[in-house]
Amino acid sequence: MKRVIALLMENQPGALSRVVGLFSQRGYNIETLVVAPTNDATLSRLTMSTEGDEKVVEQITKQLDKLIDVVMVTNLSESEFVERELMLIKFTKDSFPENVFDETNIVSEDNEIINVQVVGTSLELDKLISEIDANNPLEIVRSGSLGISSDEKTLTIEN
Amino acid sequence: MDKSNKSGAEALIHSLHLEGVDLMFGYPGGAALHIYDAIFNQNYVDHILVRHEQGAVHAADGYARATGKPGVALVTSGPGATNAITGLATAYMDSTPIVVISGQVKSNLIGTDSFQETDMIGVSRPIVKHSFLVQRAEDIPDIVKKAFHIATTGRKGPVVIDIPKDFTDPEYKFEFNYPSEINMRSYNPPEGADTSSIKEAADLIATAKRPVIYSGGGVNQNNASEELTALAKLLNFPVTNTLMGLGAFPGSDPQFMGMLGMHGTYQANMAMHNADLIIAVGARFDDRITNDPKQFALSAKKIHIDVDPASVSKIIHADIPIVGSAKESLTALIEELKCRDLKTNESDISEWNEQIKNWRDAHGLNHSLLEMGAQNGKILPQQVIQSLYKETNGEAFVTSDVGQHQMFAAQYYHFDKPRQWINSGGLGTMGFGLPSAMGVQLAYPESIVSCVTGEGSIQMCIQELSTCLQYGLPIKIINLNNAALGMVKQWQDMQYGGRHSSSTYENSLPDFVALTESYGHVGIKVSKFDELESSMKECISLKDKLVFLDVDVDPNEHVYPMLEAGNAMDHMRLSKDEKTW
């Protein structure tokens, strides 16, 4: 089962390397990892997804929480949450699957190449990739999962 | 508050002074020279010049373990920093509070592969609790404050401060302000007691028939030995300590079962295996304790008190997790038990204690080996520890290196007080013994500090004999000389058909007496049992001298009991030809 962990960390040099280092140091398998500053410029939000079991995820969150630069950690998959991923795909015009995409997906187009963007759950994107496999896409780029809880819970701090 | 103008180097030393540091260990070099000049110009902080940076960090670590105060080491960039790495990893694994300050190349040279440049923050990252790369000279006071706060609170650990040389420049001065308090939104370790599950814990205690109190290094680190002992006495429950936890409960008390785990006593391991309740305090169920975790103490409920949430239910599921300070949580537990006028199952408990006594009588350690004289004409290593124990009235600080001698010291020297036994339990660092003893001796100049070692380990940091002469440190080095890497050889005997691959020296060992004397100390050689006790007496009585007691011990002796890998804790080898299964 896919699990999504999100955390807030100090937006300062070295913080990301501590988080990433922890995964290899403790032998955790991470599938996707997304990092960006938040609207509070002193904080970055990092979202990761993993296939680990409940016990492994509990250890990951505890170990992450121990890192001094990490302000807050949450295991989003503990309750209802929304997971989304962005994907960009490049086709030659000849092989563009018109039946799969419409105008709203197209982000660039010239005489030879069409680039499309798709947003969906990781599972939906996996499915889409197998659907278009026969069209020989030139390149597929995935962002990795972002997550947000469905209810009133937030991963934010009061300043 | 001191608001005078200071350079970064002066601010660093003054900040250390304000943190209560009066002693640091180190080794100078290019990137640290501004700092060394600032040390020269003040009288608050003494600096001990070691002979190798590993020694500096181990000495700071030994000082921290013996005193409970943070230890400080100062090294230069590049090789100075990398030489400090083993010391940092040692402190990290045993959660000791030290602060290591490393010089760094000038900030404009970082990343250019300049002379003596190493990415210290990167290299040390997995083995520190936290680290700081100074970005401005003005940040130094704040960073020092944070570093000491982080090192000494929660689950303690080493912190690195890496300072580019330009930020210690004597020409650049700024207004010095030392923060009076620290507020870190991202770091809030548990401080007091966790009382959320105290009632449930007390319920389990009240109904336990075969309880064991199992405590580790966290009790010593948190100064919770008094509370642990009070709990054990209140309940009359048997106690075992991990290698790191020795001294938390008096080693000579009849309620004490001895150390548990890999080379733990028969009765301690049997009690753990058969327990119906394990009260774990400041211990982390590591693999040297549990053996196969899947077969570990299957009939026992576990109460786990630990300050580190990540240690709870990491290896063994905790039925009652108590995440808080050991001292405060134990106090709360004792209060709860007293308040409900607790009655334990007294008849069950005394039956259980009787069972443990029977185990002890059957296969416990023999603490009267000294009276048995030479064995096949040889001195047993255990007899040397017993002689040391006798001659020091059990009151010495004992540091050790790693291997058979470490286990013999842990098994046969009864530590009655916390912080008396100082060894590298987690990382298992050969070379730790002598430099850590320097830290202890400097902290307690009037006490007997002995370093129990072997001819393998002592050679890993033997250069510190020179430091000991410079500062007049009268350490008693007890060398259990079996002319081989004993523990390696033991495993080769047991698992590799006696093929001693690279574990013996083929007559290449130095004359340790001559070597010690060339360093200006006293060396004593003991090869016959009849000389052991008189030589030990002489060694201990030379109060102002470092003495190297080089004792030839039986090279064929193994450490027992020994857990059989991949099994439960009741699977032990008891001697070369006895096992429990």
Architecture blueprint of SSEs:
The complex is a heterodimer of chains A (159) and B (581).
Chain A: E1 3-10, H1 15-25, E2 32-37, E3 43-50, H2 54-66, E4 70-75, E5 81-92, E6 106-109, E7 113-120, H3 122-131, E8 139-142, E9 146-149
Chain B: E1 5-7, H1 8-18, E2 23-26, H2 33-40, E3 46-49, H3 53-67, E4 71-75, H4 79-83, H5 85-93, E5 98-104, H6 120-124, E6 130-133, H7 140-152, E7 159-164, E8 173-175, H8 198-207, E9 211-215, H9 217-221, H10 225-235, E10 239-241, E11 256-259, H11 266-274, E12 277-281, H12 287-290, E13 301-306, E14 320-323, H13 326-339, H14 346-363, H15 381-391, E15 397-400, H16 404-412, E16 421-422, H17 433-443, E17 449-454, H18 464-470, E18 476-481, H19 486-495, H20 512-518, E19 522-526, H21 529-541, E20 547-552, E21 562-563, E22 572-575, E23 578-579
Structure description:
The complex is a heterodimer of chains A (159) and B (581). With 159 residues, chain A is α+β, with helices and mostly antiparallel strands. Chain A has two domains: 3-78, Alpha-Beta Plaits, CATH 3.30.70; 81-147, Alpha-Beta Plaits. In chain A, 21% of the residues lie in helices and 38% in strands. In chain A, the strands form two sheets. In chain A, strands 5, 6, 7, 8 and 9 form a five-stranded antiparallel beta sheet that branches. Chain A has a four-stranded antiparallel beta sheet with strand order 2-3-1-4, covered by helices on one side. Chain A is elongated and about 55 Å long. Chain A starts with a strand and ends in a 10-residue tail after the last strand. The model of chain A has no long low-confidence stretch (mean pLDDT 94). Chain B is an alpha/beta fold. Chain B is 35% helix and 17% strand. In chain B, helix 16 links the parallel strand 15 (397-400) and strand 16 (421-422). The mean pLDDT of chain B is 97. Classes of the chains: A alpha+beta (159), B alpha/beta (581). Chains A and B meet through helix 1 and helix 2 of A and strand 6 of B.
